[in-house]
Structure formats: structure tokens, C-alpha cells
């Protein structure tokens, strides 16, 4: 089956996949490894908090990621203020030896949606501190442009609350974001199933980040396969120039040449 | 990339693909051949009317289909009465040497939606005449069950009017159909882009039939690739046990083990 | 508050309301009477089966309807074949002294959706027998036109299964029906809340029939009031020429005259 | 027709209508006056820029508003920074002799969506300055709660871009906002037709603000009537306890007592 050949490029680095996988929610390291392999992802996100003593051991999470040969994107999950997120980002830079960070500054623990004001503050600081900042943001096009303008390497709008599986609750806003920023747009959070991921790409996103949809599916490996195909399908479709929507039908077979009965 | 291994079985015959391609609307035979190859379809539909003198010549449509090694599913496109459709089906059986027929009995030329009453009449006759009947039907679950009960080998509900690209206008009805028939359900008509095809499979369809979405896309080959991935994605997702939809968020990274800052 | 002045006309008879109320599901006759009054309906449907000995007594259902001064539209709820529905219609004509009938021929007891084939058969018979036939039909535009063409006085497409509260699952089909029939289109079944009823009218329906949404609401009288307003709102909006949908914004306040700060 | 009796209360003031009307886009003062009357609104918004010499003259906009007996809510339309919006708010306080202000700080001129960061800044300043601040905000629940927490008297989330007529593009976010703030939630912007306004109220909004949907409709007076009914319908429905959504049908008429045929 034909694969995508155009690469996702973030901050000058090309990635071989447009699917980014979160590592949270997996039932075991073995399940996670199977999902990573099946998804063919080239980058996984890891929360600093998950990197405790066990994670660093042989056979731990870090080991697994190394073995899979994928890039690590540390995230600041669980931070509720700019100050906290900036601190975690710096710790992560040491721990993972990478200046890339998925910046999360959460507004409340029920929706886990970003706090716009604190997010901008943290992003400004981290850009100043030399990080490659990929902010998890709301689907607000004005905020997305502000983040891009201040130097973020990508913007990662939420399709819906993390883990909700609601898909993309506001496709119109994702389209608007695509129009107003020049950096990659990565749909992050809300994806429930394969068609959601395909839709994200068709709306113009450059990549999709998901975790729960795969790690908590009944068969994570099968869903990881599905998501790989879905992202490829959506990307190809986005470039193929779809037919316009029509209120009435358009016969695929013209009326001429109809046999005389 | 992992492929589907479970086969679509219609009337006891296994097909190697869950994507059925219509041949109408292609700009040229070369474009059609490229799309067939890219889609990896195992069966194409052909309207009898398209099989004129030219089609039978070397280098014509029949030749192309033979060369691609795909099965032909003749259709009765353009028929407005049961009598007409039955006649065309018989002619097609002779012309294509197959007793399979995609039965279309159209109600009007603006929507090209099926005429329920004439469709049932034609299906009854053709089943009696020994055909393997695959009726293009409305998304009405009661009608679908009636068609299955009278011996149709599959049911092919419309997602939306032919060529409209509106996708699946009533997912609820497709789900209902899936519950009430035991034969394969093939989403037929309305598909505009890849996510529509993935959704069809997630709703429980066994296959997707589409023509215009590929043949009239700006880049039919790319869209055929996209559709192939989309059908695979949707099928895998349908079997993977998706996460439930939740109103609020569910953290992928648990709160325990958060670093003490 | 301004009321609608254009009347719903069915078979030459003008009705003072575009809301038709079903009487099933009410917790008591008193609750039903309050709902009828609050809705300002001019016609209620009654299943023949409900008209048992008790219904005919003083203080029974028939008495209540007389007292409310509304028209009765008998229905053939619970009939699964044309023969059965025709019989019930004739019994109802005797019992209620009206040749109007809401024709229901149900396909199965889980969806309670109409059976297209039996419905057409029953409608033909009842039109021949001199009834004013209002068929509860699917949202299939071809079937709706067939029913109108054979002499039905209105068509009553389902928005969604009876009692489901799903609203209008396929607005596109309701629009298509509005285009292809000249008789009144009455949205029947599926309505859950006020905005559903308003939408039905905006899609071009001439009236809305609902029962469960009012009779099983926690406060049936309040919901009846809501539905009255909703139908009026939708009807007025349908005639007011709504603004077009735009992808981007359109400032309501022009930029000229902006104060110089 | 029954009217709502529960009042919208903002900052301790009760208003007799839950529909707030913008004055922009009207073709003439006469058209505007007719719309105000038909809508039965109790408060209209006016952009300071519209209050030029002409507006203050006898027969001008101010005169019209006085004559209609409705409250004025000055807005800061057209402001792109906090500083600008604060200045305009102060000018408006002088001009209109009211400390109420609808605070708009726009992020860009294509979407006219709010700029979260500047909006918060301006809101903080104006609350400090003793204004009753009603901010036009995004549909972001975290931002809405922040605005409520800093002392805004209401929050006014956008349903869709101003003048777009797209309705409520993200009902899920409106529900979330309703859950997390204690001040009135007023749906502001995006409304295209009556069912949109009814839906806003059903989602839990306390009021709806709209302009273009009425002023630019083909018949603004009829649409104003429609909106009045729609807001009432939605409010009543929200309080009436709607039936739950069900996948299958629920017969309104029980099977018992079915006549024996």
C-alpha cells in the first residue's frame, strides 16, 4: 500500500510519520510497544512525571522508546500555571536531552483544556529559553496565531477534551486555524476513532497526536494500525482535490449510450 | 502497512478488498486503470449502457477490467421501472457472463434515489430468475430487511445522493440497517472523501462502493489510494473497540507520580 | 406576541395551528388536557385502540377532545400490514365520524419505522375508499412523492424513530421532500425538544406532529408551551429570508465612523 | 401565548427579555425600530462609533432607543487592543451615562473573534474602573471562568464568527461554559435563524445576543418576531425536562388494548 512521502517538518526536522502517539493510558509496556510499532509513529510524548526511577531502568519506558527508535517529545502534563510548566520543561530538557517540549498548561481538571493566558506566558518564556515549543492550545484561531507569532514551532489545537473521544467538536475552527498560521497544525486531543483522524487531516492539519484512542481501545494494536491508515488516508485525500458537495445528485454514468430496450 | 485479512464474502465468494469501485465519471480509460490499481479494489461496477461497440474492442473497458483482474458487477443504472431493470439485468448477464447484478431502480433524475416499490418488485423477479442481487437501496432499515428477506445477497444503502459528496447524511439509519440484516451492508453513493468511507466502515458496513469521489477528484489516483487506506482504517477501527464518548476529559497521564516542584 | 396568520390547509380545511399533538404517553387525562391547551393545537391524533369503553364515557378521552374543541385525526398505530391498517381506518371512520386518517403501517417494533411497500398499498386502498389520507412515511423523497401522486392529502415523514427524541436525523431528505411534493409536509416523529420543531419548520415543513416530546417531558405543559413558540418561530423564520452562511465574519458595525482615539 | 416570567438578571438588574439586539446592519432607523419592537427586546447594543453627530440629533439613533424604552449596552466594537477598548469604554460611559459595557477586543478582521489575552487585560482594567463588564469571548470554558472569576457580570461566548450565520459551531463548549460559571451566559454572535437561538437556550444560555440575523434578514421584522418566539421556546424547553435520546423507538401508544381484528 502506498505510503506518504511528503514529510512532516517541525523546526527543520523531518519526521517519517504524521501520527504522534501519547504514551499515557497503556495497560503495560508491552502493549505500548506493540501500539508504537503498529502506528509507525516517529515521535511519542512522555510526561515528565512518568519518568521515575522505574522508567529509567533497563526494560523501562525510556529503554522501550530507544528500542523503538522514535523521537521523544516531553510534555508538561498536569501543570496549571506558566511557572510550573516552565519548571517542568526545564527538568524535561535535562532528563531527555532534548529542547523540544509539548507545552501543556491546563485550566481545570474536569476539561483539561488549556488556560490561554498562562499558556501564552509559558510559551513566551520557553521560546526565550531556547526551546522548540509545541503548545497544546484551544481551537481558537486568534490564540493559535498569537502562539505562532511568538515563535512556537507548531500549534496543537484540541479537537475535544483529552480522552473524551468526541472527535473534532468544531471543524470550522480547525479550518480557520489552518488559514492563519504558517507553522504545522497538529490536532491534539479528542480523537476517538479512525474517521476522526482522517477528518483532522482533511481539514488541513499536518499531523495528529493521540493517546487514549489507542491505548485504551479494547485492541490497542488494531486501533494503532487503524490510525496509521486513517492519517495516511486523510493526508492523501486532502491533497487529492475532493469533489464539491452538491444538493442534488450527479449521475456517474452519463445518460448517453443507454441501451434501447 | 498491515492489510485486512478478513475477507468480504458475498454469496459465498470472497473478495480481497472491501472497496468496490464504480467506473463512471473517469476522464479516460488510463485514468480509470490507474484508479483501479491504486484502490486495490477486487470488483468494479459497469453500467450496461457503457458497453457499446467500443467497450468490447481491444483496449476498451472490458479489456481493461480483464487486465486488472477484477470482478465485474454489472449495474442497471438509468432504469426507472422494475420491468426495465429486469430487462437490463438479463442483457447484462449475457454480456458479462455473470449472474451478479447491482440493481438500481431510480425514482427521479434529480436525486437518483431508489424507488422502494419498484426496487422490491425487480429484486423479487431477479432473485426468482437466479441472479445474485445486490440492490442499491435507500437508508431505510425496514426496506433493507425486506430486501434481505426476499433473498438479496447484500444491501447497498445510499449515504447520500449519487455524486453529491455529502457523505453519510443519516448515520443512525446505517447503524439500524446493520442491526437488522444478516447479509453484507455496502455503503453505496454519497461518499465525498476518505473520512466518509472510514465512517461507513465504523458504522458497521462491510464494504463501500464509490465512483465519483475518486473518478472526479482532481487527482483520482491519489484519492483512490486515500480510499483504500480509509476503508482499511475504518474496518480495523470497527473491530478494535473504540473508547466511549465522554462529556468531560479523562487524563491519559495519571496524577500520581507528579514531580514535586 | 404576534401569532401566525397564514393557515395550514389540508384537503381544503384550514387549521388554526401548525402543531399537531399525539395523545399517547400522557400520564393522565388532566395532564393531556393541560398540554393540549398549552400547545394551542387544533388537531390531535388518537389511536383507535385507545378508544375502548372507558374512552367513550363522560370524562373520557373523547369527551376531553370535544371539550378542547380540537379536531380528531384517528391513526392506525400498531398495524403491520396494509390489510390491517385499512381495517382499522374503516373502524376509525365509524368511531370518530371522520374520513381523515393518519395512516401508519409499521415495519418492525424496534424502530417503528414505516414499511414502504405496505404503506403504499394501504394508501392506494384508502384513497380509493374516499379517505383523506395522511401517511406517516420514511424521509425518502421518492416514496413521499409517490404517496402524494397517488392522492394523499399530506405526507408525514419521520424525523427519527417514534419516541427517540433524536430530532431530525436527515435534514437533507426533509428539504428534498419539500421540493418534490405539493401537498403539506408534516414532520412526524423524532422531535425531542423545541429547537427540533423550529428546525423542521425552517426546513420547509408546513407543520409538526409530536407526542412523546410533550407527554413524557418532565413538565408536559411547559414543553407544550415551548413547542407552540418553536413552531411559530420556525415558520416565521422560514418566511423571513435568513442570512446566508459565511465562512468568515461580517461586521455588523461598519468600520467607517470609528472614533479617532 | 404564555410569556416567560422568570427574568434575566445581570448585575442585580432584571430585564424583561432574554433577547438582546445589536443595532448594526439595519437598513434604516425605521427598519431598526420595527425590529426592536417586534423582538420585544429590553436592551440593545450600540457601538460608540455609531454615535456621531447625526446619532445624537432628534430623530437619530439615541432618540429611537429612548422612544423604544430599552436599555443601552454600549460596545467596544472595532477595538483590537486592551488599551483601545478601555478608552472606548470610558468614552461610552460618558456618552451614554451607563457603566455597563459589552467588551469586545477583536483578534483579527476576518474572523472578528476575541483576542483572549487582550480581552482579559481589558476586563481586569474595566472591572477595576467600576464598570459592569459583559465580555464577548470565545467559547473556551477556561477563559469564560477566568472572566467570571475576575468580576465580569456575565460572559458572552461566540457561537460562530459575527455575521456568519453558522449557528453554534460547538454546542459542547457552550454546555461546558454553563457548568463552570455562575454569572449569566449570553450566546453572542453566529446565530443565523430561529432554531439556533432556541438551541442556545436549551444548552443552558440565559440569553441570546444577535444583530445580523435580524437586521440583514430579508424581512427583519418577521425574523425579529421569530427570534422572540425562539428564545421563549428554548427557555421553556430547557426548564421542561426533555425526554432522553434513545437509539430505538418508544411507542407513544402502548400495545395493550389493541383492537382484535
From TrEMBL, chains A, B, C, D:
Domain Thiazole synthase ThiG span(s) in chain numbering: 10-254
Keywords in alphabetical order: Cytoplasm, Schiff base, Thiamine biosynthesis, Transferase
Active site as annotated: 102
Record: residues binding 1-deoxy-D-xylulose 5-phosphate: 163, 189-190, 211-212
Catalytic activity as recorded in UniProt: [ThiS sulfur-carrier protein]-C-terminal-Gly-aminoethanethioate + 2-iminoacetate + 1-deoxy-D-xylulose 5-phosphate = [ThiS sulfur-carrier protein]-C-terminal Gly-Gly + 2-[(2R,5Z)-2-carboxy-4-methylthiazol-5(2H)-ylidene]ethyl phosphate + 2 H2O + H(+)
Organism domain of life: Bacteria
The protein's annotated pathway: Cofactor biosynthesis; thiamine diphosphate biosynthesis
Listed Gene3D superfamilies: Aldolase class I
Xref: Pfam families: ThiG
EC annotation from Swiss-Prot or TrEMBL: 2.8.1.10
Subcellular locations according to the entry: Cytoplasm
Family, similarity comment: Belongs to the ThiG family.
Quaternary organization: Homotetramer. Forms heterodimers with either ThiH or ThiS.
Function recorded in the entry: Catalyzes the rearrangement of 1-deoxy-D-xylulose 5-phosphate (DXP) to produce the thiazole phosphate moiety of thiamine. Sulfur is provided by the thiocarboxylate moiety of the carrier protein ThiS. In vitro, sulfur can be provided by H(2)S.
The protein, known as: Thiazole synthase
UniProt organism field: Pilimelia columellifera subsp. columellifera
Higher taxonomy: Bacteria, Bacillati, Actinomycetota, Actinomycetes, Micromonosporales
Amino acid at each position: 500500500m502506498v505510503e506518504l512521502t511528503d514529510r512532516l517538518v517541525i523546526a527543520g526536522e523531518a519526521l517519517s510519520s504524521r501520527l504522534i502517539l501519547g504514551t499515557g493510558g497503556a495497560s503495560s509496556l508491552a502493549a505500548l510497544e506493540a501500539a508504537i510499532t503498529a502506528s509507525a509513529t516517529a515521535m511519542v510524548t512522555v510526561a515528565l512525571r512518568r519518568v521515575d526511577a522505574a522508567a529509567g531502568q533497563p526494560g523501562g519506558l525510556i529503554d522501550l522508546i530507544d528500542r523503538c527508535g522514535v523521537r521523544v517529545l516531553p510534555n508538561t502534563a498536569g501543570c496549571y500555571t506558566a511557572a510550573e510548566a516552565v519548571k517542568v520543561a526545564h527538568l524535561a530538557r535535562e532528563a531527555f536531552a532534548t529542547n523540544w517540549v509539548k507545552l501543556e498548561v491546563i485550566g481545570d481538571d474536569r476539561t483539561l483544556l488549556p488556560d490561554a493566558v498562562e499558556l501564552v506566558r509559558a510559551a513566551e518564556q520557553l521560546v526565550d529559553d531556547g526551546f522548540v515549543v509545541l503548545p497544546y492550545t484551544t481551537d481558537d484561531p486568534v490564540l493559535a496565531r498569537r502562539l505562532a507569532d511568538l515563535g512556537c514551532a507548531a500549534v496543537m489545537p484540541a479537537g475535544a477534551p483529552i480522552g473524551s473521544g468526541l472527535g473534532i467538536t468544531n471543524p470550522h475552527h480547525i479550518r480557520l486555524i489552518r488559514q492563519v498560521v504558517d507553522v504545522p497544525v497538529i490536532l491534539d486531543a479528542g480523537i476517538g476513532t479512525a474517521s476522526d483522524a482522517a477528518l483532522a487531516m482533511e481539514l488541513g492539519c499536518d499531523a495528529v497526536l493521540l493517546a487514549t484512542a489507542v491505548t485504551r481501545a479494547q485492541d490497542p494494536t488494531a486501533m494503532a494500525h487503524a490510525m496509521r491508515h486513517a492519517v495516511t488516508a486523510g493526508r492523501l485525500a486532502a491533497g487529492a482535490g475532493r469533489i464539491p458537495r452538491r444538493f442534488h445528485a450527479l449521475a456517474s454514468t452519463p445518460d448517453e449510450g443507454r441501451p434501447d430496450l
